[in-house]
């Protein structure tokens, strides 16, 4: 049977298990599904695979939905919760059972453990040996518990023309009759995925290549149901290589942040930067690096998804984030930065000040945290604490110079960056100093640090009264070291 999913309107699905945050690899899978569906004018659906009730939590579900929303990935239709569909899964298992494509297995736990022990001793693959495949169920003790197993094909081979991996072949003899329904009547993952994909009309299964082996177990279920009732075509498979850390190992907590929420909340990454970075992580379009959302939809295809694992590079992400910070609106950035700077920054006046500061802060920052650090001096209360380096700049000579700066600035009629630059350059010339020699102690007095935006921008942002008060504080004693 050939894969026929491409003949139908495209429907993709993202199907995370809600056992924690939205993993960075899951976010990329969601993105690729979303882009492929939108590129083809189709639908991208969301299914929460919450059948592991012990590990699935409302908090995890909320975290996944929040992460998708932050990335701007809105899925079509109602979210499907797999746990609500158990009766439908069992119904399909019964159809397979009734039509000879599945059977009841009464093997006890002890028998299965002995079987595996014998296989280990003989250095054989661990797989179910089919002991109940052709036995009469009447041979089982009355009322004995059983599982339902798929009667998988034993001869020949299964071939998948994967849209990313190419042609992949597995001999059917390597597969076993796996469980469809457990002894308590609950469906297994393999069965539930196939039934849900069919019922949701999924045409393209785009997922991590750690699921490639699952495809060879899931296809026999589809093909058996297609024989029974028709209308169960194979999907088009596209198994995407996993994301690795910088050392080439599978991405994990030891590589740093692994959840989308951490990139937002702890690293200060903008959603459009992570969207763009994940897009380029394993997919490319020539040498182009930055893509608008519309460009990504227009250009995305599976043919340009690589077969090798991608390496996550935090520095590249931060560089891309710096690009998007420079493009972002000042008022939006002010709203993102304000929560990191205390209550003074959150009011209307604080937000206005932050917004006006963004044009001079953005060129220096690669994330929201750096924006906040750059803006912190605006909201520090007097007397200003000084860093150790800043304190060393404010010796007696510097305090004398600060008093002269204050006198000159007090006489200024206009308080703009241009007028301030003119006044201070004039003073520097009178003192026979380079502007830097004058700016260094002034920066320390105004910000408490040795680095900041341009000194004239700092003066303009702080305003006349606050600037002069800070200069006077340090000119008087200069010993408020942090």
Summarize this entry quickly.
By secondary structure, this protein is mainly alpha-helical. The protein has three domains: 5-243, Rossmann fold (3-Layer(aba) Sandwich); 330-379; 381-482, Arc Repressor Mutant, subunit A (Orthogonal Bundle). The protein is built from 19 helices and twelve strands.
Structure write-up:
The chain is mainly α. The chain folds into three domains: 5-243, Rossmann fold; 330-379; 381-482, Arc Repressor Mutant, subunit A, CATH 1.10.10.350. The protein contains 19 helices and twelve strands. The chain has helices at residues 24-39, 58-70, 86-98, 109-121, 189-199, 212-229, 260-265, 271-280, 293-299, 314-327, 330-337, 343-346, 348-361, 368-375, 388-393, 396-410, 417-431, 435-447, 455-476; strands at 11-14, 43-48, 80-81, 102-105, 147-150, 157-162, 166-171, 179-181, 204-208, 236-240, 243-244, 310-311. The strands form five sheets. Strands 1-2-3 form a three-stranded parallel β-sheet. Helix 1 (24-39) links the parallel strand 1 (11-14) and strand 2 (43-48). Helix 11 (330-337) packs across helix 13 (348-361) and helix 18 packs across helix 19. The termini are far apart.
């Amino acid at each position: 049977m050939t894969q026929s999913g491409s003949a139908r309107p495209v429907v993709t699905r993202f199907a995370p298990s809600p056992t924690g945050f939205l993993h960075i690899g899951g976010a990329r899978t969601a993105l690729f599904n979303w882009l492929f569906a939108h590129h083809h004018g189709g639908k991208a659906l969301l299914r929460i695979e919450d059948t592991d009730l012990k590990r699935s939590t409302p908090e995890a579900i909320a975290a996944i939905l929040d992460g998708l929303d932050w990335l701007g990935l809105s899925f079509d239709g109602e979210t499907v919760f797999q746990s609500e569909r158990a009766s439908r899964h069992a119904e399909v298992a019964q159809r397979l059972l009734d039509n000879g494509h599945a059977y009841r297995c009464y093997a006890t736990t002890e028998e299965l453990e002995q079987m595996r022990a014998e296989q280990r001793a003989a250095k054989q693959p661990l797989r179910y040996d089919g002991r109940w495949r052709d036995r009469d169920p009447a041979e089982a003790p009355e009322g004995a518990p059983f599982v339902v197993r798929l009667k998988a094909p034993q001869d020949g081979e299964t071939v998948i023309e994967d849209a990313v991996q190419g042609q992949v072949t597995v001999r059917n003899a390597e597969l076993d009759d796996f469980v469809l329904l457990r002894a308590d009547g609950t469906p297994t993952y393999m069965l539930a995925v196939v039934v849900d994909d069919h019922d949701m009309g999924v045409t393209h299964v785009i997922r991590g290549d750690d699921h490639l082996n699952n495809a060879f177990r899931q296809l026999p279920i589809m093909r058996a149901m297609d024989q029974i009732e028709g209308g169960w075509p194979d999907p088009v498979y596209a198994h995407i290589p996993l994301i690795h850390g910088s050392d080439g190992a599978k991405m994990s907590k030891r590589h740093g942040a692994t959840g989308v929420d951490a990139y937002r909340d702890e690293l200060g990454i903008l959603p459009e930067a992570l969207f763009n970075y994940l897009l380029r992580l394993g997919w490319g379009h020539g040498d182009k690096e930055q893509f608008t959302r519309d460009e990504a939809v227009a250009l995305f295809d599976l043919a340009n998804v690589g077969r090798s694992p991608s390496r996550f590079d935090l520095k590249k992400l931060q560089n891309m984030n710096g690009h998007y910070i420079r493009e972002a609106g000042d008022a939006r950035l002010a709203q993102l930065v304000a929560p990191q700077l205390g209550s003074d920054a959150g009011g209307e006046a604080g937000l206005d000040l932050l917004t006006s500061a963004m044009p001079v802060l953005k060129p220096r920052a690669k994330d929201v945290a750096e924006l906040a650090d750059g803006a912190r001096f605006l909201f520090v209360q007097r007397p200003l604490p000084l860093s150790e380096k800043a304190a060393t700049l404010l010796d007696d000579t510097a305090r004398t110079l600060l008093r002269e700066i204050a006198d000159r600035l007090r006489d200024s009629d206009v308080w703009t960056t241009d007028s301030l630059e003119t006044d201070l350059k004039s003073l520097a010339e009178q003192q026979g100093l380079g502007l830097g020699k004058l700016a260094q102690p002034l920066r320390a007095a105004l910000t408490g640090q040795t680095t900041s935006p341009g000194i004239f921008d700092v003066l303009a942002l702080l305003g006349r009264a606050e600037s002069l008060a800070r200069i006077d504080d340090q000119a008087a004693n200069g010993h408020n070291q942090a």
